[in-house]
Amino acid sequence: MGCSATLLPSPPPHLHRPPTFKPLLNRRSLLFLSTTLSFPATTISTSSATSPPPKPDTTITERVYLDFSICPNYFTNRTLGDDLSNCSDSEPIGRLVLGLYGNLVPITVSNFKAMCTGTSGSTYKGTLVQKIFPGQFFMAGRQGRRDKGEVKPPLELIRNTETIESKAFILEHSRGGIVSLPLSENDDDDDLKLNPKYHNVEFLITTGPGPVPQLDSKNIVFGTVLEGMDIVTTIAAIPTYKPSENIRQYNGFAELLGDGRAKTARAIWNKPQKTVYISDCGELKVAKPTLSPSLP
């Protein structure tokens, strides 16, 4: 019995060809799409960009003066009473003219001017420069006893609420001749500070030549020296009492043990070895500048 193979009919020839794919987009279509399709452009909104903060208003609204002198016999002869301005053999150093930023910190400026004019019930006149830190600043206006050359605590001043306002601490102690209200550096006695009627009127002036960054954001800059930077330099050059390293270490150890005498001992550190004092002070009335001649 034989086997016979059944041959299937072969498919038509066109079915053996591999499939061909036609591009969905031809050259003309791509060109058309490239000219008609638009993509969103990346833009930076000017409103989202951070704008710089406005500059502090350092317009000089008030001018005051401070005259500085040296009284050679103050510590040897206490016959001057409670006013150093009565020193008969006073040696004048010179005058500082200060410009004050009344728009920026009006309360601080008003109180300082009142201390210069004496309308506060107290005055800087006849009081000592208490501390000198060479290359940094000097301080005056410490409150206490007049017979020790300190400022009589003022009673007729406005409560200074600017000491807790952030805008009052914007300006930096960037150079010599900066006038500042010391908060971190204030060394008035604690019993004075605890008085509800206490007003901080101590002030410092930077001596240069460089900035004093450790004072920034802690003390209120309220003015600048307009005239007399040579006087500032002269005061800064006066010798001061500088404790030895052993004394500093002993003092620090005593303070660590809670010995109250440590702070008392530090009171003479950086004190000038000459009696530098404010012999006079007041407000300067500046006349309006003359007008330019009119053109014909």
From TrEMBL:
Which keywords has UniProt assigned to this entry? Isomerase, Rotamase
Which catalytic reaction applies to this protein? [protein]-peptidylproline (omega=180) = [protein]-peptidylproline (omega=0)
Q: What is its EC number?
A: 5.2.1.8
Q: Does the keyword Cytoplasm apply?
A: no
Boundaries of every PPIase cyclophilin-type domain copy: 83-283
Pfam families per the record? Pro_isomerase
Disordered, as annotated region: 1-20
Q: Does the keyword Membrane apply?
A: no
Q: Which InterPro entries match?
A: Cyclophilin-like_dom_sf, Cyclophilin-type_PPIase_dom, CYP28-like
A GO molecular function for this record? peptidyl-prolyl cis-trans isomerase activity
Broad enzyme group: isomerase
Q: Name one GO cellular component term.
A: chloroplast
Per the record, the similarity remark reads: Belongs to the cyclophilin-type PPIase family.
Q: What role does it play? A: PPIases accelerate the folding of proteins. It catalyzes the cis-trans isomerization of proline imidic peptide bonds in oligopeptides.
Output this protein's name: Peptidyl-prolyl cis-trans isomerase
Organism, scientific name = Nicotiana sylvestris (Wood tobacco)
**Gene behind the chain:** LOC104212466
